[in-house]
Amino acid sequence: MCGIAGQLFHDPTRRVDPAAILRMTDTIRHRGPDDGGVWTDGSVGLGSRRLAVIDLSPRGHMPMTNEDGSLHVVFNGEIYNFHELRDELRAKGHVFRSDSDTEAILHLWEEYGERLVERLRGMFAFALWDASTRTLFAARDRLGKKPLYYVHDAHGFVFGSEPKALLQAPGVEAGVDLLSIHHYLTWGYVPSPFSAFRGMRKLPPAHSLTVRGGRLDVRRYWTLRYGPKHTASEDRLAEELQSLLEESVRLRLISDVPLGALLSGGVDSSAIVATMRRLTSGPVRTFSIGFDQPAYDELAYARLVAQHFGTEHHELVVKPDAAAILPKLVWYYNEPYADSSALPAFQLCAMARRSVTVALAGDGGDELFAGYDRHAATAVAARFDVVPAPLRAALARGVGALGTVGAPKTLVYRLARFVEGLPLDPVARYARWLAVFDNSLKLGLYTADFAAQVASHDSLELLADLYRRSDAEDFVEATLDADLQMYLPDDLLVKMDIASMACSLEVRSPLLDHHLVEFAARLPRRMKLRGLVQKHLLKRVMHDVLPEPILARRKMGFGVPIDNWLRGELRETAYDVLLDRRAIARGYFRADALRRLLDEHASGAAFHHHRLWALLMLELWHRTFIDDACPLQAPSADDVRTGLPRSVVAGAVSL
Q1: Whole-angstrom Cα distance, residue 621 to residue 216?
Q2: Per residue in 288-330, pLDDT tens?
Q3: Which of 185-194, 254-263, 270-279, 410-419 is the least confident region?
Q4: Element of type H or E holding 215
Q5: Is 2 noted as a catalytic residue in this protein?
Q6: N-terminal to C-terminal alpha carbon distance within the chain
Q7: Is pLDDT above 80 for 632?
Q8: By the 8 A CB rule, do 211 and 157 touch?
Q9: Residue 591 DSSP code
């Protein structure tokens, strides 16, 4: 696991400054504290920061080259089938000089060229320079577990694992991409291929790029298919799912450093821990985090799983001092990012890193097996579509008023959210459930000048386009496909990549092995969502393995009580930051509209917590990256790695 960066000038007589590459990699040192390297050759330069997990010897040093020095590569991630690839390549005459999975990429390029990505099984973002053809080739894994940002212009090409690395390169300036801000306010994150920085882009998941002769070509190399459907019996499909899960976990247990698991107490992470227990004879270390508010606390379930499998369990009850951690959060996440669960994710990874260097997690299970409540709600709402639209609208008006009565996570609140989407078409309905700000709320917030620049671009079209391109015949499955292509890589996997790498922790996601993902996509829908029972086949596989309360519980989600914080400890901060003259002068939002959101939430007249959090993160991002030069280090970065300030920790228990 690493952080990578590099630069290529189109003019072969122009020389890359090694000091510039070093600045780029130093900025992302947290991604790889064990080793660093820079290589330049005239108009090209590559750099790396390494977190040593496989082959801890100096032979794993990067940038890595082949035998004759014509190829150089920097790599971030893990290739889980590298032993198999090494055997195959050795049989073809290739000679390996290390035990690192990185070296396999060099020999695969020699053998297969750009098609090498089709042979890789794992999480990765890498860049390879071929001096013989003056070609820079880069790629990102199929599901988007590892990031890659780039800038391409008439002068050259710059890339890196995080935007803050690119901002250290000569000629890359920290401007704002207004359209990306517009999209961010809908989704709470900046979707690929957009970036909040003007001129910068993300390489989307399952894509590669080639830079040659001043030209950039980007192509998709993998597309998930939902057909043809499996026709085997449910018994047979359950056996195959169990086999794929065991294989995926087994591959991710390969490590030369201590390894554990992040355990929430949900079905997905519990299934990973159960499989680890079955495949290993030594101790299984598990890590869980909780809150002192029952509506947000899952520790009892995690503890039940830990005791059931006899793990070496660690848990932490936290009451985050959000105001203190916000500067770190903004710096690490690089772009505006409104998923408040990033806070506990940071703390969970910091706790795990004190004991292990690698941790397995349950990411992806909800997107594969219809695990979110909104997936079941999508199926239920479809039954209302036969009701005339005026009646659905009347029902929404009547029940929608209850939205100000029930607090978040209550049945009344969820019912109001469900009903408010009934008058809409299925895609617009799902977008309404996901959106932080819908179009009408955004336009009510925007100044006339900002609206004139961005309002012609409908952010909901980004989601609608995913539905149109999906080959899933069933709307619920098309929704899973859309989640896998946007919400998962641009929100959830960003959250875990940044939170874990900030603590120099590698997190692996067995459920996102692309073989398992391809198998799950082709399962009939009834194997995922049966009536209102979510994750049907996965729960069947785990029926005699996990404690019954784990299988029977409803999904809680990894949330934090920001609704309460923004009426309490963060109330003054929100008013001060969002109504500050500097914030208003940016010209995005009307001051009266901002104050109305703040007042309605503070008084309890409405729940605007997600919107206010998104606005707060946007303004703090501006202050960190746009108003001033990007700082080379996060405020009190050591606090993240060694445990957050004492005020954050309310208590800790080790079972």
Answers
A1: 29
A2: 988 777 767 789 999 999 999 999 999 988 765 666 778 889 9
A3: 410-419
A4: strand 215-220
A5: yes
A6: 30
A7: no
A8: yes
A9: H
CA distances from 107 to 95, 102, 651 (A): 9, 10, 50
Q: Would you give the DSSP letter of residue 285?
A: E
Report long-range pairs for 473-479 (Cβ below 8 Å, ≥24 apart): 473/226, 473/227, 474/525, 475/378, 475/382, 475/426, 476/370, 476/375, 476/378, 476/379, 476/525, 476/528, 476/529, 477/226, 477/521, 477/525, 477/528, 478/226, 479/375, 479/378, 479/430
176: which DSSP letter?
Answer: B
pLDDT tens readout for residues 571-603 = 999 999 999 999 999 999 999 999 999 999 999
Contacts of 606 (CB under 8 A, 6+ apart): 403, 404, 600
Helical (H) or strand (E) element with 507: strand 506-508
Residue 403 pLDDT > 70, yes or no?
A: no
Residue 30: strand, helix, or coil = helix
Distance CA 121, CA 510 (A): 11
Give 7's strand partners.
45, 158
In a 10 Å sphere around its CB, with 0-12 CB exposed, 13-18 middle and 19+ buried, how is residue 507 labelled?
Answer: buried
How many beta carbons lie within 10 A of that of residue 628, not counting itself?
Answer: 10
Please tell me which residue in 2, 349, 503, 630 is annotated as part of the active site. Answer: 2
Give burial (CB, 10 Å; 0-12/13-18/19+) of 274.
buried
- pLDDT score at 638: 42
Contact assessment for residue 360 and residue 272, using Cβ atoms and an 8 Å cutoff: yes
Q: Pick the residue with more confidence: 650 or 586?
A: 586
Q: Give yes or no for residue 399 having a pLDDT over 80.
A: no
52 against 590, higher pLDDT: 590
Distance CA 226, CA 472 (A): 5
Residues 229, 231, 235, 237, CA torsion sign? negative
Residue of 159, 179, 154, 149 lying closest to 21 (CA atoms): 159
For the chain, domains (ranges, CATH) are 2-220 (3.60.20.10), 234-369+492-526+545-552 (3.40.50.620)
The token pair that represents 577 in the structure block: 């930051």
Query: pLDDT value at position 186?
Result: 98
For residue 645, pLDDT over 70 is answered with no
Residues in contact with 573: Cβ distance below 8 Å, sequence separation at least 6, in sequence order: 323, 616
- 88-146 pLDDT tens trace: 999 999 988 888 899 999 999 999 999 999 999 999 999 999 999 999 999 999 999 99
The pTM of this model reads: 0.93
Q: Hey, what are 251's tokens?
A: 């591959």
Is beta strand 122-130 parallel, antiparallel or unpaired with respect to 135-140? antiparallel
Could you tell me the pLDDT band of residue 191, with boundaries at 50, 70 and 90?
very high
Q: Which of 96, 154, 158, 146 is nearest to 117 (CA)?
A: 146
> Pick from 30, 99, 6: which is nearest to 349 by CA?
30
Q: How far is the C-alpha of 479 from the C-alpha of 474, rounded, in Å?
A: 9
Report whether the peptide linkage leading into residue 163 is cis, meaning its omega lies within 30 degrees of zero. Answer: no
